[in-house]
Specification:
Blueprint: E1 2-7, E2 12-18, H1 25-28, E3 35-41, H2 42-55, E4 61-67, H3 76-88, E5 96-101, H4 103-115, E6 121-126, H5 131-134, E7 139-144, E8 147-154, E9 159-163, H6 172-189, H7 191-198, H8 208-228, H9 243-253, H10 260-279, H11 285-294, H12 306-314, E10 324-331, E11 334-340, H13 342-356
Parallel strand pairs: 2-9, 3-4, 3-5, 5-6, 6-9
Antiparallel strand pairs: 1-2, 7-8, 10-11
Bound molecules: nicotinamide-adenine-dinucleotide, the ligand O=C(O)C(=O)C[C@@H](O)[C@H](O)[C@H](O)COP(=O)(O)O and zinc ion (ZN).
Zinc ion binds next to helix 10.
Pathway: Metabolic intermediate biosynthesis; chorismate biosynthesis; chorismate from D-erythrose 4-phosphate and phosphoenolpyruvate: step 2/7
Family: Belongs to the sugar phosphate cyclases superfamily. Dehydroquinate synthase family.
Pfam families: DHQ_synthase, DHQS_C
């Protein structure tokens, strides 16, 4: 089991990562709780709720709330439904919410915990590769039809308990989605990590040692950044590499019609191209494109309006005075933020989408 302590401006919490560690769930809780509500989705519920229930302290009263699987559950309706469930289950300020699932559940349940009775404890029990990213750092949110994660907060969990055995049931599409955030951590941190991921075939079973190594390295990159800039005043923006266009694609296509990671994967391709054009440098665009293609990432999109995408990018949380800010790379491991003029963005995006091709 690998343990990493995260220190934020408001608290400290441990991230536990390892095979089979769910059995020790009760030991990883920082204190005793008498009333615990597990929030999960319909797919994860079938697979893992019973285990989690079994390993929670037997003295606690435990309830389970299940939302439909998928991005559409990061909605105001499901958020309100879960608050009602918390009230019905008599959760009080000393109670605990367990977020059991991927990033959708972590973001949603975390936002419920952040706002119920002005904030109660929650722990993240991630079950997707992507959630090595979403369970760490304390960003919790729901979506608005106008944009991703527009309603949320920074609200760190009490602990992250990541049993990587759960990843064995992940379908390939979710492995791809998760690995987009893994390779993002490579791009923004160091060449060796990036190259290791570029050499990994994720279409077949990834050796557990390698997978755990990639997850731990990704978590370390993220932890280092959020410890220095929890509320995204400056360097935390680097974790948004690929997200300015990625989020715009997700909301423009309609939530759930492309996975978060697959949209971000295309967003990173664009960010690399903009970096090369802006700084007149060469980055591993071809190697990355080849890896995406070999691992069956979607590399074409249904026809999308450049203007609509730009309007969406302007609603991104990094935007200032309606000017789009993107995270670019000066080289692998050296991210920067850059304001892009509307004219440049129109030209670059038009060219990029044309090259990417339409379905
Ligand atoms: N808060 C953050 O810092 C942060 C970081 C990255 C992404 N996110 C958010 O995370 C969300 C995406 O997370 P995700 O990709 O984990 O999506 P998800 O939670 O929807 O999970 C993906 C799918 O996999 C299923 N699933 C989950 N675990 C499984 C398992 N072990 N076996 C089989 N199926 C399983 C789920 O039911 C779902 O259908 C997006 O909303 C994104 O915005 C947040
Ligand atoms: O933790 C962060 O900071 C990130 O940007 C991580 C991203 O992978 C994640 O998708 C995050 O939810 C995006 O945040 P947002 O502030 O752009 O909504
Ligand atoms: Zn992301």
């Amino acid at each position: 089991m690998h343990k990493q302590l995260i220190t934020t401006s408001t608290n400290q919490y441990n991230v536990f990562v390892g095979n089979g560690i769910i059995e020790n769930l009760a030991d990883y809780l920082p204190k005793e709780y008498q009333n615990i509500m597990i929030i999960t989705d319909s797919i994860v519920h079938e697979l893992y709720t019973e285990d989690v229930r079994k390993y929670l302290p037997q003295s606690a009263q435990v309830s389970v709330s299940v939302v439909p699987a998928g991005e559409n559950s990061k909605s105001i309706e499901q958020y309100y439904h879960l608050l009602t469930e918390a009230i019905k289950n008599n959760l009080d300020r000393k109670s605990l919410i367990v977020a059991l699932g991927g990033g959708v559940i972590g973001d949603l349940a975390g936002f419920v915990a952040a706002t119920y009775m002005r904030g109660i404890d929650f722990v993240q029990v991630p079950t997707t590769i992507l959630a090595h990213d979403s369970s760490v750092g304390g960003k919790v949110a729901i979506n608005h039809p106008e944009g991703k994660n527009l309603i949320g907060n920074f609200y760190p969990p009490q602990a992250v308990i990541f049993d990587t055995d759960t990843l064995k049931t992940l379908p390939n599409i979710e492995k791809r989605s998760g690995y987009a955030e893994v390779i993002k951590h490579g791009f923004i941190s160091n060449e060796a990590f990036l190259e290791d991921v570029l050499e990994t075939d994720i279409t077949t079973d990834i050796p557990p040692m390698k997978l755990n190594d990639h997850l731990q390295k990704g978590i370390a990159v993220k932890a280092d950044i959020v410890e220095k800039d929890e509320k995204e005043a400056n360097i935390r923006k680097f974790l948004n590499f690929g997200h300015t266009l990625g989020h715009a694609i997700e909301s423009e296509l309609g939530y759930g019609n492309i996975t978060h990671g697959e949209a971000v994967a295309i967003g990173m391709l664009f960010a690399i191209e903009v970096s090369e054009a802006t700084y007149r440098i060469s980055l591993p665009y071809q190697a990355y494109y080849h890896w995406l293609s070999a691992n069956q990432y979607p590399l074409s999109l249904p026809p999308l309006s450049v203007q609509n995408l730009i309007n969406r990018m302007k609603k991104d949380k990094k935007s200032e005075n309606a000017m789009v800010q993107m995270v670019l790379l000066k080289e692998v491991g050296s991210p920067v933020t850059e304001t892009i003029s509307d004219q440049d963005l129109t030209n670059l995006l038009d060219n990029f989408l044309g090259k990417l091709g339409s379905e």
